[in-house]
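Convert to structure. Protein one:
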Amino acid sequence: MIEDGAQVVARVVRGGVVESVHRGHLVVLAPDGSVLLRHGDPDRAFFPRSSLKPVQAVAMLRSGLDLDGQLLALACASHSGEREHLAGVCRILEGAGLGEAHLDNTPALPLDADAAAAWLCAGDGPTAITQNCSGKHAAMLATCVAAGWDHVGYRDPGHPLQRAIRATVAELTGDGDPAHVTVDGCGAPLFSCTPTGLARAFRRIATAAPGTSEHRVADAVRAHPWWVGGTGRFVTRLVEAVPGIVAKDGAEGVFAAALPDGGALAVKIADGAPRALPAVVTALVGELEVSVPAGVGEVPVLGHGAPVGQVEAALPRTNGTLVR
């Protein structure tokens, strides 16, 4: 799907010259759910990677997980591995009567460069708790305890937890049963959907009625953006800057977001490069008539350490008019 129909969505400009381009697929849904803008082919199956975590969290809440606030945001996170993130993972596990040894995600160093350096200087190496998906895995374990399921083997696609997640992905995306199932980088099952379906799922979460699992997830992400990402992360800065937005990034150039009025978007960068996302996502939020403060979506191109250009969104336009 990634190569088929991918179109230019961002340009890298150095010294006034286009140095390279990023192709991809994107969709923007209007508040009423209709398609406002599409580029590439957003109706083909792809792997949404960690942008699916808020949907997975909805499934876990429906199955009995009892988290809200910071810890629910952490369950939705690809966290940077900063000290409070790790302490939060421990709190989720302790609340379920479990410990770090029960985590079965792939060991890795913290995403945050300073946190990783401190971890290595302390003599530690890659671990499960410092891997960016440990909040989700801790929540998966806690869900198993709450639901009375065996937590051993919780990553198996046939486990009741993963069956519940699969059904929720099918429901919220509106794509039907996932066409493809594989293993994500963290070891959990990864279910495919379409970019359009991912935007629909975020729209349902962002507009959900109070008291629903979807609304609980939306509230947690909106109120605690640092827990969803970390210091300096684009997803954190965007949620802090745009009132009411629910957003999540994913590996290989994926991003999804939705607003309280129902406007939503999803992006997949074909080459997997995340550097294109801030400019593209910021431009798409603007198409929903919501302003993003200057600087949030800026990605400078450096020459000898100083800005000499930037990454720019390249939305489809004809004679200066946006094509919809």
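Protein two, convert as well:
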Amino acid sequence: MVVCAALVYGLDQLTKWWVVSTMTEGQITPVLPPLLSWRFIRNPGAAFSIGTDYTWVFTIIMVLVSIVLVLQVRRVASRLWATALGLVLGGALGNLTDRLFREPSFGQGQVVDFVALPNFAIFNVADSAVVSGVVLIVILTLRGVAMDGTRDAGAAEDDASPGEGADHDR
């Protein structure tokens, strides 16, 4: 979990440093037209720029999420759970770093976003990691996989192949 979080955090901060040092705010650079471009913006809000006047709230939420995830490290024995939680932790810490240390002020900094897809939000590596981690958490939970790697007996029955036990449905 810690390794995954560190990799996500490092990649997020490295890409944001690259964007800030090589692009001007508002600049659009086609990468794979028309599917992907880099578009440098600073986002004071959450996803889709929601809550731009409440940046400090997002900072507090990210601090709390990060603390809760760090406290889970010892409970995680499953590699998939470690990956999922590491993705969320690394992403939360990446955007938290922006909130704490970027302009306009401590705790209210704007997050650097740059990945632009057509008709979608502009996001960054941290955002991608958080979403991927949450999707993996949902899948693991639905499949009944506990953080220690054990499986819920009910979920194991649900995962049985269609041929198994099909006679009782007739």
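The mean pLDDT is 87. Strands lie at 28-32, 36-43, 111-116, 122-123.
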